[in-house]
Amino acid sequence: MTDREHLPHAPDDAVSARGDGRAGGRPPERGRGRVWLRRGQVELTTTDQRLLDSRGPTDWVHQDPWRVMRIQSEFVEGFGALAELGRAVSVFGSARTAVGDPRYELARELGGRLAREGYAVVTGGGPGVMEGANRGAVEADGVSVGLGIELPFEQRLNDWVDIGINFRYFFARKTMFLKYSQGFVVFPGGFGTMDETFEALTLTQTGKVTQFPVILVGCDYWSGLLDWLRTSVADAGNIDLADLDLITCTDDLDEVMRVLTDADAARARRDEADLYQP
Q1: Per CATH, is 75-275 categorized as 3.40.50.450?
Q2: Which of 55, 76, 104, 201 gets the most CB atoms within 10 Å of its CB?
């Protein structure tokens, strides 16, 4: 049995945690951190929901201090698993992209190119674009990482993840993406993809992370968003036009690799200069 086969699996037909388990003959199931639940054990709310819910009885006053221990354990587990990862790039994009779709295949090609350049490929561990990037990394004998998350609906770590961590809390998971990646490559996606993209842009704009390229792949898809930032948002004075220089939009994987390697070289020069500061 391979390491990949040890990862928690859920049904391929994406049975909802609220479903009756008849679709595809598989029961509803959900990962809760490192625990996997099925049938009547599946809870209809997630750990994040319960943490952030201000309604209901006041027993949360007594429970929240203990939640800190669980949150701490997620950070400890993530740091321990990824401490020796080396250079890495996170690839984001829609979980709904089908196998064989041009975007899936482009992500797969990118995963292979990153692996051959010595980068680990980090994704959210789900299907679609994420699976394509993980698959490309494995096919090129690279390091393939998936950082999963507990969701109200079923989602499993894809079969091409070789180092997989399932998180309960989004903020712990986001920290791992940002701490261990040297850049983000973002394919077309929905709210989750945009959330991660703007998180990275905010931290770069405010100087919390440096030399951190954010590359959007698929300019037809992203052009409307970029036009809105360039006009409505910048014209209102809410960002500077120079802030848009933090974003590269391209359809060319050669340019993706060039931006990443240029950022690596700039980072190395900065680190060397810091080393010899008096």
Answers
A1: yes
A2: 104
